[in-house]
Amino acid sequence: MFCNSCGTEVSEFARVCPNCGEPTVKVETREVLGTKWADFLGYFYFWIGCLFGLIGIARLVELSGRSDDLLGGKANLSGYITVAVVLSLVNIALLAVAAVAIINRKRSAGKLVCAVFGYEFVSTIILLIYGSAVLGPGSFSGSDGVRMILDIVLIFVNASYFDNRRDIFVN
Ligand SMILES: [Zn+2]
User: Fold this and answer.
1) 8 A C-beta contact, residue 144 and residue 120
2) Cα of 135 to ligand 1 centre, how many Å?
3) Distance 31 CA to ligand 1 centre (A)
4) 3-class DSSP state of 166
5) Residue 36 C-alpha to ligand 1 middle, in angstroms?
6) Ligand 1: distance of its center to the CA of 14 in Å?
7) Taking every annotated instance into account, which residue ranges of this chain make up the domain Zinc-ribbon (predicted)?
8) SS3 of 9, please?
9) Rg of the chain over CA atoms, in angstroms?
């Protein structure tokens, strides 16, 4: 190969040009790294989000099969489960919109990602209120609290991440 800087032929294994001292290894620019990271984020949000969404829906379907056993058959869970499944499906759709925006470097990507976490926060509250009305206050679990705190943290983390990368999300 040849040195990008002075044109001297250099060994494939040389890390710097023996003539001018320039690095021979193509240094990835912030732009390239930033775009790769953005692609990773886009796919990550989409696939991980879909996976958790589908696991959640599967658990709800399983719960609906056992709804007669719960609380000695006093609980009517079908309304709650319908709401929870609809909320999960909307969540997956929002994730897909955010992932597409990230991959296409849309300027709106950051706001969409924050909106997904905001939506998750609100839908957790809706399900907690609905769940405690149907199942009693015992339906609140620690994981709901952790998830809500995580949603808020992720809104701030992503707002700052996308704000610092306005040069990448320009479309
Ligand atoms: Zn050189």
Assistant:
1) no
2) 73
3) 24
4) coil
5) 28
6) 11
7) 2-23
8) strand
9) 24
- Tokens representing residue 107 in the block: 């300027």
Q: How far is the CA of 84 from the centre of ligand 1 (A)?
A: 63
Ligand 1 center from residue 29 Cα (angstroms): 19
What amino acid occupies position 27?
V
d(CA 131, CA 15): 62
Domain-wise residue ranges, the chain = 31-163
Residues in the chain: 171
CA of 2 to the centre of ligand 1 (A): 8
- What dihedral do alpha carbons 84, 90, 94, 99 form, nearest 10°? 80
pTM of model > 0.85: no
| CA–CA separation, 34 and 145 (whole Å) | 32
- Around Cβ 108, how many Cβ atoms within 10 Å? 16
Over residues 69-108, the pLDDT tens digits come to 655 555 567 778 888 889 988 998 998 898 888 888 899 9
